[in-house]
Each structure stands twice: as structure tokens, then as C-alpha cells.
Amino acid sequence: MEGKAEGKVIVITSGKGGVGKTTATASIGAALALDGNRVAVVDMDIGLRNLDVVMGLENRIVFNVVDAVKGRCKLKQAAIRDRRIKNLYLIPASQSDNKDVLSPDEMVQFGEKMRKEFDYILMDSPAGIEQGFENSVASADEALVVCMPEVSSVRDADRVIGLLYARSITPKLVVNRIIPEMVERGDMLSHEDMVEVLSIELIGLVQVDDHVIISTNTGVPLVLQKGSKAGDAFRRIAMRINGRKDIPIEVPQTEGRFWKKIGSKFGLGK
Question: Which of 24, 90, 111, 191 has an alpha carbon 20 to 30 Å from 39's alpha carbon atom?
Fold first, then answer.
């Protein structure tokens, strides 16, 4: 990357687990790489490690992020290249260490090294707001907060957003696992409600999609799966991250909504 601007570190976080951070990290990373960027996705969930499985790269791990940060290996030795998507790399978490093995200061130095090698570095933050979170945000330029349309998820996201602002990191919101039918019935929070409560910029809406389970089980990136609505949504998020302000945010809708509108207009609706 000689002569180029330094890369950008983006932390992907949520506060609570189970909202789809790891799927979002893998999908957005893959989409950014498909768009011509050199991308590294970094699993910061020290002690657990899931990003490698989601990306189908678990059998190729030799070194991990702790080895790279501690200087036990070179950065390029820890970075596993995805064979299907050019310029996409994974730096896996360590399963044998605990979260306090790394410090924020070490992560700042690591971030500086990463910026010289990659256009985008996506940090998959572990659940919670303790040491793993502190390490994940230490070198971040920007943040994506992944939130589900549930009151508990919004409450956790609000806490994390406050912590990010306190570190002068401006977060953007990804609403994940939307079920359009439930939103229409008023049984699930709408993205408008969530944006109003959280007061941050919305960057993408992702609906529930069976392709996510297929992707996790097969290691085939969502953005390579035809007909995946979630994959399409993550592609649009990546394009907006990459500076494409013209890409609209598509609101997930029920399959029959168009016909319902037509029917009611012509006296055919119930």
C-alpha cells in the first residue's frame, strides 16, 4: 500500500451476544473485498473463536491475533487468505488465551501496522463491555453497532454507543434480523423507533434470512449466495462504508405487501 492513504479500522460491536456481529463482520468484509479493497477481518473474541468457522477457514489456522500482536509471528503469517475472494484475509482469535492477554496500548500499535497493509480492518468485538471490548475499540476509527429490533438489544446498544462517543468514535447502526411481518403488525420495533431512541446514523437494515444458517454451516459467504436478502443488505452496507452515499437503505417488506396495496387500490383487498 505504498503511496496510498492508510487503511481504516472499523469495530463491529453490540454490547450483547447473539445479535449477528460475526456474520455481519464476515459478510461486510467479503463485500468490501469484492468491491476491490484489501480487507482483514480480525476475531477479537479471545478464548472462543467463531469467525474462522463462519468463513470456512478453521482448518487453515497456524497463528492467531495474539501471536501477531505479541510479535511471535509476522502479520502476514497470521493473516489467512480466503481462496474464494481475492484480497480478503482473516486473523483468527486465540482459543488458549484469556481476554486480558492483550492490552489497549498493544492494540493501538497493532492497528497502526494493519493500516499500512489493508484498506479496511474489521474488528469483530466480543460480547460485553469489558476487556475484549476495550481492546477491540482501542485503534478504531469508526464503529458499526449491530442491534436487533428488541428492547433488550436496543438498551445494550445504547450503552455501547455512549462508550464509543466517550472515545470520540462515531458509531453507525445496523439493524439485524428484521421480520417484516412482525414490524407491520407492531409486534417488533421498527427501525424508525430504534433510530429515534439511539440517535445515531442508520447504515443498513438486514432481514431474517435462512441463508445465514447455510452460510454458517458451509463457510460460504452470504454475499456469494444468490437470493440471499441478508447478503444483498450487507453488500449495500459495504458500498456505503466504501463511500457510495448514493446507495439507498432498502426497508425489508412482506412478500404480499405490493399486492395488498394494488388490491386495496382497486377494491380487491379485504
Answer: 191
- Residue 59 CA to residue 64 CA, distance in Å, equals 13
Which CATH entry fits the domain spanning 8-265: 3.40.50.300, 3.40.50.800, 3.30.70.1490, 2.30.30.100?
A: 3.40.50.300
What is the Cα–Cα distance from 172 to 141, expressed in whole angstroms? 12
The answer to whether 125 and 21 are in contact (CB under 8 A) is yes
Question: Coil, strand or helix: which one is 207?
Answer: strand
Nearest to 215 by CA among 84, 94, 127, 120: 84
CA 174/CA 237 separation, integer angstroms: 8
Q: How would DSSP label each residue in 208-224? A: --THHHHHHHH---GGG
Element holding 176 (H helix, E strand): strand 170-178
Lowest mean pLDDT among 9-13, 125-129, 137-141, 171-175: 125-129
- What is the value of pTM for the model shown? 0.91
